[in-house]
Design brief:
alpha/beta; 11 helices; single chain; Rossmann fold; 2 domains
């Protein structure tokens, strides 16, 4: 029987939401499980899948027509060449992350501006740490270089501009104006723009073309007082070069939510660097996340059943 596989443990989606899936596809069996063995038992009949279904299992599904990824990043497909060869449609949840991601970025910017890591270290030591004028700075008047102007980048541009920051955006194509951005340039202008940025924020997907987008050359182009913020994918940054840059003072610091290896190994020098803020890849996390993602899936399910084009279709060969 044609099957919809939802790779979540019971309770992630409510009974009401599951009933909406059944209503949209009454002639299909619905299987909800996070267990790989249970997934494997029905994989031969899976036509539609979503949730946390593992890539290696999906590429073996002979009847799979559509997979709705529960996140925006789908660079995993590039690690499974068979997935690019298979004919199933891949969609993601691009568009549901701007609020929480922008707030996460803003938290990192403000943490550096107001020296919050130093204050929190002093707090754990019960030490009164008064900051001097020269130790803190204001975001207003600083230049934010946004590398990536999708939904998250566009929302961040508006919020940063509202705080008085000078926003410059870099994107691969479509160089039309973006609200909040004083300038929008092509990715080929990155080297030209790096020396003028106080913050460099990475928001692009990880593809063969963006792997190690920021390496030694780019880090040396940044000013000594600048900060690198990466909430995109760890592979965008040459981590060894970044560690060297932080040690040598090429840049002032880094706010990192993503890493080349996750979890970040316990022996990584990044853990002990006072000019680094580490968050455990939760920039996109929000209490509203699953509800927002479900709405994308449900809308696409209805469109799929009606033979209409789906939203957020990913080019599996490009990875975005």
């Amino acid at each position: 029987m044609p099957t919809i596989l939802i790779g979540f443990k019971p309770g992630v989606l409510s009974d009401v939401q599951l009933d909406q899936v059944r209503e949209a596809a009454p002639d299909m069996r619905l299987v909800v499980t996070p267990d790989r063995d249970e997934m494997a038992a029905v994989i031969a009949d899976v036509e539609i899948a979503t949730g946390l279904a593992p890539g290696p299992l999906l590429v073996t599904a002979p009847r799979l027509c559509w997979f709705q990824a529960w996140g925006a990043g789908v660079d995993w497909v590039l690690r499974h060449p068979r997935a690019t060869e298979r004919g199933f449609i891949l969609t993601n949840t691009s568009g549901i992350h701007p609020i929480q991601m922008t707030e996460h970025v803003l938290a990192l910017l403000l943490a550096f501006a107001r020296r919050l890591p130093d204050a929190m270290r002093a707090q754990t030591q019960r030490t009164w740490r008064h900051m001097e004028n020269a130790e803190v700075f204001e975001l207003a008047g600083k230049t934010l270089l946004l590398v990536g102007l999708g939904a998250i980048g566009q929302h961040t541009a508006q919020v940063a501009a509202a705080l008085g920051m000078q926003v410059v955006g870099v994107r691969r194509a479509e160089l039309e104006p973006v609200p909040g951005a004083a300038r929008v340039a092509g990715i080929e202008a990155l080297a030209e723009l790096l020396p003028g940025a106080d913050f460099v924020l990475l928001l692009v997907p990880l593809t063969p073309g963006t792997f190690h987008l920021i390496g030694e050359r780019e880090l040396r182009l940044m000013r000594p007082g600048a900060y690198l913020i990466n909430v995109g994918r760890g592979g965008l940054v040459d981590e060894a070069a970044l560690i060297h840059a932080l040690r040598e003072g090429w840049i002032a610091g880094a706010g990192l939510d993503v890493f080349e290896r996750e979890p970040l190994p316990a022996d990584s020098p990044l853990w002990e660097m006072p000019n680094v803020i580490i968050t455990g890849h939760y920039g996109g996390v929000s209490p509203a996340y699953d509800d927002r993602a479900f709405e994308v899936f449900l809308d696409n399910l209805r469109r799929y059943r009606a033979g209409q084009p789906l939203w957020n279709v990913v080019d599996k060969r490009l990875g975005y």
